[in-house]
TrEMBL record:
<dbReference type="GO" id="GO:0004177">
    <property type="term" value="F:aminopeptidase activity"/>
</dbReference>
<keyword id="KW-0645">Protease</keyword>
<protein>
    <submittedName>
        <fullName>Leucyl aminopeptidase family protein</fullName>
    </submittedName>
</protein>
<dbReference type="InterPro" id="IPR043472">
    <property type="entry name" value="Macro_dom-like"/>
</dbReference>
<comment type="similarity">
    <text>Belongs to the peptidase M17 family.</text>
</comment>
<dbReference type="InterPro" id="IPR048816">
    <property type="entry name" value="Peptidase_M17_N_1"/>
</dbReference>
<keyword id="KW-0464">Manganese</keyword>
<keyword id="KW-0378">Hydrolase</keyword>
<dbReference type="InterPro" id="IPR011356">
    <property type="entry name" value="Leucine_aapep/pepB"/>
</dbReference>
<dbReference type="InterPro" id="IPR000819">
    <property type="entry name" value="Peptidase_M17_C"/>
</dbReference>
<keyword id="KW-0031">Aminopeptidase</keyword>
<dbReference type="Pfam" id="PF21337">
    <property type="entry name" value="Peptidase_M17_N_1"/>
</dbReference>
<dbReference type="Pfam" id="PF00883">
    <property type="entry name" value="Peptidase_M17"/>
</dbReference>
<feature type="domain" description="Cytosol aminopeptidase">
    <location>
        <begin position="312"/>
        <end position="319"/>
    </location>
</feature>
Length: 465
């Protein structure tokens, strides 16, 4: 993971390069405070105060920086990100109206803008660290934790399947226990076939190195409210016997993105010492092809006792989640949240920038949307319509795993999961892309988290100390 621990530091009056923030409306007034040479420098850089513009202005033997933002007095998570990415190595301080916020939410983007994935090659063009000073030192630890959680998701998703299989996801859960305490139980082999039959069926075609398993981590006082976090851990999805085309497989290393979100969120919960009894469940498989792969037309047993007819082996994520959600429900939790890279339909509906969210309870959904908007991570609620439950009818089993018409794919997948969640349990499902196809300031191309900060801030409000 990119080392960010010193990239934001308390302002103790140390030497630093000034950053002025301006917008297009205020640029002319700001320019009047500059010398003719300084104004000419900004003109040459075509700096006009538009969002994400970066200007470097000579000032004696040094320079100061100018950043274009929407509102210098109300900073977003991303308004300093372009500066953090493009400025030379050094230590910086906000001045003027923006200094009154102490960087505020923009500290998050300052950190994430400096993320680099260098497991397999060095970034030859990377600048040295850009350090930001803040007069709100009490916020540093919290924003560091959030940025590290975001970067963990990026690292896990960006790692190819050969190095991020079920065993590697198990190792990530072990790291949580090592750092925060708790207990980890891992079920695999014959015990998996008996206790989590759909997880076993989906993963049994993979070789021994990538054998299926389910991780169940518990943490916190048994007297506190039970919170269950579940993450889809399909380390690679070939589609199974309903094989994907090559173009559809290209990004399937990211199909464990739900597990990455769940592990990162669990780390925030444990690090933040929320007053919960946490149950983290990560079913981890590779949906591979071999002589013992599960087939279209098969009927699988499930932990809940429902039988599931397989209409499509490429609708495997909902199967492993079904067993995990059943296990989570057995703890009578106050809330279950699951994350999954579940359907292409959600991407068609919302594009890559929003996590689709489905929820049983309006109050919980509204709290998540509110927390997301406040932290630049807004989910978009999709329905769970009763009218579409009939799409999952099977002639020979209790339920089918996929429908054959082209309609409402994300919601129908959510309705499948709903059958495996205990009655009357408050449950939220995130259908997340876990991937950014185009870079934006503070948000690199590749693996990324959607809905993570929304969930974390909602949980802090609900279960915080």
């Amino acid at each position: 993971m990119t080392d960010i621990k010193d990239l934001i530091q308390p302002d103790r009056g140390q030497d630093a390069i000034a950053i002025h923030l301006v917008n297009a409306d205020g640029f002319d007034e700001f320019a009047k405070t500059l010398s003719a040479a300084q104004r000419a420098s900004l003109t040459g850089q075509k700096f006009e105060g538009r969002g994400y513009q970066v200007g470097i202005v000579p000032d004696g033997d040094g320079f100061f920086a100018v950043g274009g933002v929407a509102d210098p007095g109300e900073l977003s998570s991303w308004c300093l990100a372009k500066l953090a990415d493009e400025l030379p190595e050094g230590t910086y301080r906000l001045v003027g109206k923006a200094a009154e916020t102490g960087a505020g939410p923009a500290m998050f983007g300052w950190l994430t803008a400096q993320y680099r994935f260098t497991r397999y090659t060095e970034d030859e063009n990377a600048a040295g660290p850009r350090i930001l000073l803040t007069d709100q030192p009490g916020r540093i630890d919290a924003v560091m934790a959030e940025a590290q959680a975001e970067m963990l998701v990026r690292d896990l998703v960006n790692t190819p399947a050969e190095d991020m299989g079920p065993a590697a996801l198990e190792a990530e859960c072990e790291k949580l226990v090592k750092v925060h305490g708790g207990e980890l139980n891992v079920t695999k082999g014959d015990a998996l076939e008996q206790g989590y039959p759909m997880v076993h069926a989906v993963g049994r075609a993979a070789d021994r190195k990538h054998a299926p398993r389910i991780m169940h981590l518990t943490w916190g006082s048994e007297s506190d409210p039970v919170l269950a976090i579940v993450g889809k851990g399909v380390a690679f999805d070939s589609g199974g016997l309903d094989i994907k085309p090559g173009s559809g497989m290209r990004l399937m290393k990211k199909d464990m993105g739900g597990a990455a979100h769940a592990i990162a969120l669990a780390g925030l919960i444990m690090g933040g010492r929320l007053k919960v009894r946490l149950h983290l469940l990560v079913p981890a498989v590779e949906n591979a092809i071999s002589g013992n792969a599960f087939r279209p037309g098969d009927v699988l047993n499930s932990r809940k006792g429902l039988t599931v007819e397989i209409h499509n082996t490429d609708a495997e994520g909902r199967l492993i989640l079904g067993d995990a959600l059943t296990r989570a429900s057995e703890e009578n939790p106050e809330l279950i949240i699951d994350f999954a890279t579940l359907t292409g339909a959600a991407r068609v509906a919302l594009g890559p920038d929003y996590a689709a969210m489905m929820a049983r309870k309006d109050d919980t959904a509204q709290a998540l949307v509110k927390a997301g908007k406040a932290n630049d991570d807004e989910p978009w609620r999709l329905p769970l319509p009763e009218a579409y439950r009939e799409y999952l009818k099977s002639d020979i089993a209790d339920i089918a795993n996929a429908h054959t018409n082209p309609y409402a794919g994300a919601s129908v997948a959510g309705l499948f999961l709903d059958r495996f969640v205990g009655e009357d349990i408050d449950w939220v499902h995130f259908d997340t892309f876990a991937w950014r196809p185009f870079a934006k300031p503070g948000r690199s191309k590749g693996g990324t988290a959607y809905g993570l900060r929304a969930a974390w801030h909602m949980l802090k409000n609900r279960f915080g100390n």
